[in-house]
Amino acid sequence: MEPLQIDFGRIPKARKVYLVMGNEAADLDSMASAVLYGFLKSNVDQDPSHLYLPFAPIPKEDFKLRTEAVYLFKEAGVGQESLAFQGEIDLQHLHQEGRLALILMDHNKLGKEFVAYEGVVEEIIDHHKDEGTYPQARVRKIEPVGSTCTLVAEEFFRLAPKLLSRREALLLLGTILLDTVNLDPKAGRVTPKDTEVAGKLEPFVNLNPNTLFETLQREKFNVDALQTADLLRKDYKEYTTGKVRYGMSTVLISLESWKKKDPHLQKELEKYRKARNLNLLVVMIAYTEPKFQRELVVVSESSSLTTSLVEYLNTRGAQLTSLGFPGGYTQGNAEYSRKKLQPLVQEFLAATFG
Question: Long-range contact list for 153-156, CB < 8 A, 24+ apart?
Answer without folding.
Answer: 153/197, 153/200, 153/201, 154/193, 154/197, 155/37, 155/40, 155/125, 156/36, 156/40
